[in-house]
Amino acid sequence: MKLILLGAPGAGKGTVAKLLTKLDGSVQISTGDILRGAVQAGTELGKQAEDYMKRGDLVPDELIMGIMESRLQEPDCEKGFLLDGFPRTIPQAEALKELLQKLGIKLDMAVNIDVPREVILDRLTTRRTCSNPECQAIYNVKSNPPKKEGVCDKCGSPVIQRDDETVEAINHRLETYNEKTAPLIGFYEKEGLLVTVNATSSEDVIAAIKEKLGQ
Ligand code: ADP
Ligand code: ZN
Fold first, then answer.
1. Residue 147 covered by a domain
2. Is 123 in the pocket of ligand 1 (CB under 6 A)?
3. Residues flanking ion ligand 2, Cβ below 5 Å
4. Is 94 within 8 Å of 61 (Cβ atoms)?
5. Which of 48, 166, 167, 205 is the most exposed place for a label (fewest CB within 10 A)?
6. 162 lines ligand 1 (CB under 6 A)
7. Which CATH number fits the domain that encloses residue 97?
8. Dist. CA 154 → ligand 2 center (Å)
9. Which domain holds residue 191?
10. Which pLDDT tens digit goes with each residue over 40-92?
């Protein structure tokens, strides 16, 4: 399947994407994971992105399009892909449309995961992430803690709170979402690709996506 996952930070895009990869071998492409990996590895891309990310600001569109243009042409995308955290702005959505046309790729749909704001705030403050850039497993101190406190179940690396998960940075990310990313809902509605799912459990979101895909 070839999907865009839309939704506020904390809506569960990453969790849903990881579950969907198990269905048909589609790959998860998370620009956030790619950028955090680059920051930790200290690459040129990481150096350019780091300050924006710490503040909870978006990284410039040109950097993101550079990443995505090459990522979408890797062979593992042939079976399908789940775009998680991209596109984030109208210019990114327009550039993606052009890129997909150039590559001859057709999207199935853009899924808007719509979760109430209280749930989002609670999730973001209690979220923890595996610090290993190759893993980046997501936990929640209340609803899904690692078996051993502070240690990733999957790879044994320390599980940490992200730099951009302070209350200030979270509020800023949500403002940025409302201002820059929420307009994509209208964009994909016009494209005839939008599907909105009102669900707070990832299983319900998956079930709704399967139904829409006719599976
Ligand atoms: P979340 O969805 O929880 O906010 P992400 O992991 O998707 O987190 O993104 C973390 C940060 O990485 C964002 O706050 C932003 O700085 C940067 N980022 C990720 N994807 C994009 C994108 N498509 N465009 C611009 N910045 C991005
Ligand atoms: Zn891990």
1. yes
2. no
3. 130, 132, 135, 137, 152, 154-155, 157
4. no
5. 167
6. no
7. 3.40.50.300
8. 5
9. 2-26+79-213
10. 999 999 999 999 998 889 999 999 999 999 999 999 999 999 999 999 999 99
Residue 108 φ/ψ, nearest 5 degrees: -80, -50
Asked if 82 and 20 touch (Cβ cutoff 8 Å), the reply is yes
Q: Whose CA is nearest to atom 12 of ligand 1?
A: 32
| Number of independent structural domains in the chain | 1
Closest CA to 114 of 8, 19, 39: 8
Q: Is residue 57 part of a domain?
A: no
The residue among 104, 117, 94, 38 whose CA lies nearest residue 73 is 104
Does residue 115 lie in a domain region? yes
Distance separating alpha carbons of residues 68 and 62, to the nearest angstrom:
10
Nearest-5° angle of CA 186, CA 77, CA 34? Answer: 75
172 is a domain residue: yes
The CA 169 to ligand 1 mean position distance, Å, reads 12
* pLDDT at position 200: 83
Ligand 1 nearest atom to the CA of residue 53, by list position: 16
Catalytic sites, residue numbers: 13, 88, 127, 162, 173
Residues of the chain with pLDDT under 70: 215
**What's the CA-to-centroid distance between 165 and ligand 2, angstroms?**
18
Residue 127 Cβ inside 6 Å of ligand 1? The answer reads no
